[in-house]
Design goal:
This protein is 34% helix and 20% strand. It contains 6 helices and 7 strands. Helix 5 links the parallel strand 6 and strand 7. It starts with a strand and ends with a helix.
């Protein structure tokens, strides 16, 4: 099954970019980034930027934009059954050349999990501006429960706000 990502959440003054690999089934069904109720992304965004899951999606998006945070996925499309990153095949990357040209202030990137990191290394790094700091972060997916919420939050805070 071919799945496609969403347009980025990004204001013109974005300085921080958070990249996932590809939205999971719950997100694709909802048409919203990180829609699975057990995904820790929005709770972490609530701690860091006041964009928590207690707010309507449009307000969360607005809060991230106001904070200079963009959200996107490394992949534009892929083949995948279900939601697991391990099942991704036939990767088609998003156009990072165009994105970074349109968002020249991006200087910090957080990669949400190992698959996002591996795919970004393959497709996105040629377009990075000098001095951009890239952090590989623990996945917020409920499938990755090696760290509890507090530990994940601390790592995300250090990388994105530190």
């Amino acid at each position: 099954m071919i799945v496609r990502s969403f347009a980025p959440i990004a204001g013109p003054d974005a300085h921080t970019l958070i990249l996932g690999s590809m939205p999971g089934a719950a997100s694709l069904d909802a048409g919203e980034y990180y829609a699975h109720p057990r995904n820790a992304f929005w709770p972490i965004m609530g701690v860091l930027y006041g964009a928590g899951s207690d707010l309507p999606y449009t307000e969360r998006v607005a809060a991230l934009k106001a904070a200079g945070v963009a959200v996107w996925d490394v992949l534009k499309a892929c083949e995948r059954e279900g939601s697991l990153d391990a099942d991704i095949r036939g990767e088609v990357p998003n156009d990072f050349e165009v994105f970074f040209a349109a968002h020249p202030r991006i200087r910090r990137i957080g990669l949400n999990g190992g698959k996002a990191a591996a795919s970004f290394r393959k497709f996105g790094t040629p377009w990075l501006s000098p001095g951009t700091v890239v952090h590989v972060l623990p996945s917020t997916s409920p499938a990755h429960a090696a760290r509890d919420f507090e530990a994940k939050s601390a790592l995300w805070r250090s990388a994105l706000l530190g």
